[in-house]
Design a protein that fits this description.
It catalyses: (R)-malate + NAD(+) = pyruvate + CO2 + NADH. This protein is an alpha/beta fold. Helices cover about 40% and strands about 20% of the residues. It is globular and about 55 Å long. Bound molecules: 1,4-dihydronicotinamide adenine dinucleotide and magnesium ion.
């Protein structure tokens, strides 16, 4: 096992992205040392500061610079003085699309010491497999007659057979490795072209793999996440439905500060990107109180993707154990600062008992 070495690009980004990222890299380094691998971090100073001095979120050849890395660890991007579509389309969306990160994977479970706002959520444990590069978030469309009474806007949803097959295959594999329950989010009663196509292709893929799909209208599925969250195992959803249902599920699990998200290119032709679900949180940035668990969990997903399963498990166990011991940041009702929580995790990363 000697010589396992990885090159990871770090885009800490804005606001608390900077604060939670240093927690993650120090803990990953500790886990790496304990498990016999190493990571070379390539720091990228991209994001809103870069935008203010260069007029772009990343260099012209930014994607080329990332292309030979093993993975990308992202903090958060977004600043109050820059429009959110600029920060999103200038960095995150180009990375997701250029590197064909067509799976957005969001595990959701209730961590120790985190309480759900739901009454009946004990044991909630699901993963959302969101299509990440096509669907409703397309550039196809346009606007006409701006500012006039005739003004109109059209935006087309794009679903391809290849795109739906590959996301369905990924979700089927997840379900088979878990409880075997696959729920597909749809709206084929109202959206009769793209969503009927989605239903057909998902069913074909699942049937070929010997799995039954539980097809559910997105509105009813939203209610089920709230009322019977434990009945869900793997949810496969289009880009828009997956976006909404994963935030709903993350909220059901208690705190935005702990939720992770992975943008994966499953064939590993390109680097995948791992990030917390939360944003740059300008309201608490600079105070040293951000919860680093979402970033730590994202880093654990990165280790899993790199094949470092023992490291991933060790890191996950370390932050779960710190939470269980009552070390918690303020968003979880505790008193710990980011640095104090990180120290508690770090001590557990190297603990060999
Ligand atoms: P946000 O996630 O930054 O903050 C929402 C609320 O949750 C705030 O009250 C914040 O203090 C709290 N919060 C978030 N993460 C936390 C953590 N780790 N520990 C403790 N409390 C935490 O969402 P918001 O305010 O809507 O967006 C702020 C900026 O972040 C915007 O510019 C937005 O575009 C950007 N954003 C970026 C994302 C990304 O980089 N992927 C994702 C979401 C938002
Ligand atoms: Mg979202």
């Amino acid at each position: 096992s000697a010589g396992r070495h990885y090159q990871v690009d770090v885009i800490a980004g804005d606001g608390i992205g900077q604060e939670v990222m240093s927690a993650a890299t120090v803990c990953v380094d500790a886990v790496a040392e304990a498990c016999g691998f190493s990571i070379a971090w390539r720091d990228r100073d991209w994001g809103s500061d870069y935008y203010r001095s260069h007029g772009r979120m990343m260099p012209v050849d930014g994607l080329e610079q990332l292309a030979d890395g093993d993975a990308i660890l992202l903090g958060a991007v977004g600043a109050p003085d820059i429009p959110d579509d600029v920060t999103l389309w200038g960095l995150l969306i180009p990375i997701r699309r250029e590197f064909l990160q067509y799976v957005n994977l969001r595990p959701v479970r209730i961590l120790p010491g985190v309480s759900s706002p739901l009454r009946d959520a004990d044991g909630l444990d699901m993963v959302i497999v969101r299509e990440n590069v096509e669907g409703e978030y397309s550039e196809v469309g346009g606007r006409l007659y701006r500012g006039r009474p005739e003004e109109m806007a059209v935006q087309e949803a794009v679903f391809t057979r290849r795109g739906v097959v590959r996301i369905a295959e990924y979700a089927v594999a997840q379900a088979k490795a878990r409880r075997g329950l696959l729920t597909s989010a749809t709206k084929s009663n109202g959206i009769i072209h793209t969503m009927l196509f989605w239903d057909e292709v998902v069913a074909e893929v699942a049937t070929a793999a010997g799995l039954e799909v539980d097809k559910m209208l997105i509105d009813a599925l939203a209610a089920r996440v709230v009322l019977k969250p434990r009945s869900l195992d793997v949810i496969v959803a289009s880009n828009l439905f997956g976006d909404i249902i994963s935030d709903l599920a993350a909220a059901a699990a208690g705190s935005i500060g702990v939720a992770p998200s992975a943008n994966i290119n499953p064939p590993k032709d390109h680097p995948s990107m791992f990030e917390p679900v939360h944003g740059s949180a300008p309201d608490i940035a600079g105070q040293g109180i951000a919860n680093p668990v979402g970033q730590l969990w994202a880093a654990a997903m990165m280790l899993q993707h790199l094949g470092e399963t023992e490291g991933a498990d060790r890191l996950t166990a370390a932050f779960e154990s710190a939470l269980a011991a009552g070390v918690r940041t303020r968003d979880l009702g505790g008193q710990a600062t980011t640095a104090e929580f990180t120290q508690a995790v770090l001590a557990r990363c190297t603990d060999t008992s």
